[in-house]
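Continuing the batch. This is chain 6 of the set; chains 1 through 5 are on the previous pages. Same settings as before, nothing changed between runs. Recording input and output for traceability.
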Amino acid sequence: MTGATPGAARVGWIGTGRMGAAMARRLARAGVDVLVWNRTRSKAEPLAADGASIADSISDLADRDVVLTMVSSSADLEQVLVGDGGLLRQPGRVPGVVVDCSTVSAQTSAAMRKASAELGVEFLSAPVSGNAKVVKAGKLSLVVSGPEETYQRVAPLLSELGRGVTYVGDGEAARLVKICHNLLLGVVAQSMAEITVLAEKGGVSRHALLEFINSSVMGSTFTRYKTPAFVHLDYTPTFTPVLLRKDFDLGLAAARALDVPMPLASAAAQLVQATIGGGRGDEDFAVLLEQQAASAGLRLKPEDVVVDDGLG
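Output for chain 6:
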């Protein structure tokens, strides 16, 4: 990386799903030199309107100062970095730093860190908290681990992605922090579904309950931006039960390895699995509300009320 300011780095970006596209767009609009690659090129092409360049091949990114990755799974990260034609398999060319923002296992992350180090490439784990709407609102949070000196050099660039970047140490510490975060996400979503159904079955509208919760000490960014989904029964996916199940699997595996009991997370994981088994795994994970209502013998209807998602 050639400098400490965001605009000084030549940046590569791999992965333009919902999150990846939103994040790359923020960098491009901030004036960063961003070259974007996605397996399906057509999904990357809209970013050209925001100032990004579109790569024909991963190999085009190999000489970039920093390459950020945002992919769906551990297997996808392995493929784009060390698989056939991957970023770290380009003859005689490697990027300076790889920053992975995906939610992957600590084992995969450690293997990618090792593969990078063997080529003299620095590697940072930088998973994120938020969805595409949160990214657009400038409220994304990142947690980062790896060599601190490398982090300090790329921190200005990462700060362009959202409102908070937290460094938590060396190695794969950031992976554990992100998994802990997503375990909390799933448990809170299930709890939110339960209390909403309890109140509605007792005669209280969903919007009234959630207005109270959101203005109380229990309100949060999460409860606010999930309120429209709960009130309008809008399950347009931002994060699916299938993806949440992956995180529960990773989190409960970490808990077993560290001998930490996780009774609430274990119960929530089974309810997420039930939602997937019921055929609704591709909707937003707010669909946990519907499952809870069905268990309580309650049929939900959309409420025609304007509510604020808190994202401004």
